[in-house]
Amino acid sequence: MSVRERADLVETGHTYRRAGRIVINAPIQRVFDIVADPRRHAQFDGSGTVKTPTFAPDRLAQGATFGMEMQLVVPYKITNTVEEFDEPSRIAWRHIGRHRWRYEFRALDDNSTEVTETFDASTAIFPPALKLINAYDNNQKAILKSLVRLKSLAEDEAGA
Which CATH superfamily includes the segment(s) 8-49+85-158? Predict the structure, then answer.
């Protein structure tokens, strides 16, 4: 792993959004490709809840759906729908609760990419309810861990 192994907290200015950012020493397309492959999500998930896909396309696209086996105290399955897809700069999906997980990618040069991950509950059915399960704090911590794991994966594959 590179010398810089921490993601930075990003102040969103919004009650129902949490975000983090990291610079990855790999080309933007390589980093985007990892996130666009739902079979790889457990490899970079920092929450420990994402397990294996129950169904998924090889590559996500606008409107694609994919199912995941999850575990948060007890195992469960969830279906996600891709709501935003702009290759290679943005991808976001949501599940039945309608809150989104968004990844934004910005090439800094040919071999480095800034990635921002956001948990956006402003789109949720009832955002205040997520406070009851500590979703905002838990997702903030998970985002920072996920970004570090994504950095490690992408840099290892890029030979950085």
Answer: START domain (3.30.530.20)
Flag whether pLDDT at 3 surpasses 50. Answer: no
In whole angstroms, give the CA distance from residue 21 to residue 29. 17
The tokens for 97 are 């609760």
pLDDT at residue 159 is higher than 90 = no
DSSP state, residue 1: -
pLDDT digits (tens, 9 = 90+) for 123-148: 999 999 999 989 999 999 999 999 99
pTM (2 d.p.): 0.93
Say if residues 104 and 118 touch (Cβ distance below 8 Å): yes
Is the backbone peptide bond immediately before 88 cis, with ω within 30 degrees of 0? yes
Nearest to 116 by CA among 127, 106, 107, 129: 106
